[in-house]
Amino acid sequence: MVRACMRPAASASSGPRVLVLGGTGRVGGSMATALSQLRPDLNILIGGRNREKGMSLVSKLGERSEFIHVDIRNTSRLKAVLEGVDLVVHAAGPFQRDDKCTVLQAAIFTKTRYTDICDGVDYSWRAKSFHEQARASGVPALITAGISPGVSNVMAAELVRTAKGESGGEPETLRYRWCRSNYVGHKLVTSWGGCNCL
């Protein structure tokens, strides 16, 4: 059963409502699962176009989750869905194909907190152009919070914090690398990333 996406009546047991757009995909689904485990008080809305995948994930996440059928290209539907949401996590990529920031614009319009996992340079620059609108509307908007540069920056900050604690001073140079594996066809492909910070 797909429930309507209206804000439930306030009660002590109702927690914040988080909409994960692209929640039926690999990254969005993993994010929704992690959120439900880290914050069992959250009401997780799985937003996407694939009802079958969405309902499958909802059945695994439990009663504090629901599937919301939404296509981010349908602006009026997107705004309606966001009306009852405390935070939207935009994981409906690939961002390199988007020439508009429809989810961010809808979040600003509905005054919904926003974050995305964008790794596309062009998209991130477009999203940054909405800074003043988001600020004027009082909407926190965290962009490019994905693996690169999002999580990789958090990794770098944690390494600096650890180095400061161990040495008592500022590190002069920071070098780190990470490995990501993926199946392409039937082959396992591994890519390396890294950063040199001075």
Automatic annotation (TrEMBL):
Gene3D superfamilies found in the cross-reference section: NAD(P)-binding Rossmann-like Domain
Pfam families: Sacchrp_dh_NADP (PF03435)
Domain Saccharopine dehydrogenase NADP binding as annotated: residue spans: 18-141
Superkingdom in the source lineage: Eukaryota
Database matches in InterPro entries: NAD(P)-bd_dom_sf, Sacchrp_dh_NADP-bd
Name the UniProt record assigns to this protein: Saccharopine dehydrogenase NADP binding domain-containing protein
Organism annotation: Triticum turgidum subsp. durum
High-level lineage: Eukaryota, Viridiplantae, Streptophyta, Embryophyta, Tracheophyta
